[in-house]
Amino acid sequence: MRTWRWMAVALVGLVTASAMAATLDEDEARLEARLRAQRAAEAAKANSVPVLAAAIAPPPSPNDEWLAPPSMPATLAFDELARHVGERLTVVTRGERVHRGTLTAAGARSLTLVVQRRGGAASYTLRREQVVRIEPLQAR
């Protein structure tokens, strides 16, 4: 009787082992498929840059001028100088000589610039032919 029991256990073990062998192959195939899918997901995640926040500028409104002053042009035309009397300017003349001062007068043929010097103020009258470039002086 003990022999039969032992043979029954051995037979159940053999049947289970053969069934496990088939499921082991299936399990291995399933694990390989999962690993491939996981690696593909990690690669896709590494290649994509996450968007933390999207910044969208609001449309301009008429009240925006108080936020920042309107930008000044890089250079001023000689004909427009009459509108800039009293402003500080940088005037570059022939020979690249630079004069920084306050515009006191502007006409069709000349401009007058007051420049501060050590001994006081100096007034320059520059003819249109002498002037190469006129720039607004940036506030400090």
Can you put this structure into words, describing what you see?
- By secondary structure, the protein is of the alpha+beta class.
- The chain has 2 domains: about 1-50; about 75-135, Roll (SH3 type barrels).
- The protein contains 1 helix and 5 strands, in the order αβββββ.
- The chain has a 5-stranded antiparallel beta sheet with strand order 4-3-2-1-5, with no helix packed on it.
- The longest helix has about 45 residues, at about 1-45.
- The radius of gyration is 43 Å and the shape is rod-shaped.
- The model has no long low-confidence stretch (mean pLDDT about 80).
Low-confidence stretches: none
CATH topology of the largest domain, anyone? SH3 type barrels
- Using the alpha-carbon principal axes, give the shape: rod-shaped
How many domains comprise the coordinates?
A: 2
Strand content: 25-35%
Order the strands across the largest sheet as they lie in space.
4-3-2-1-5
CATH first level of the largest domain: Mainly Beta
CATH architecture assignment name of the largest domain: Roll
- Helix-residue proportion: 25-40%
What is the SS-derived class? alpha+beta
Report the major sheet: 5 strands, antiparallel
Number of strands: 5
What number is the mean pLDDT? Answer: 79
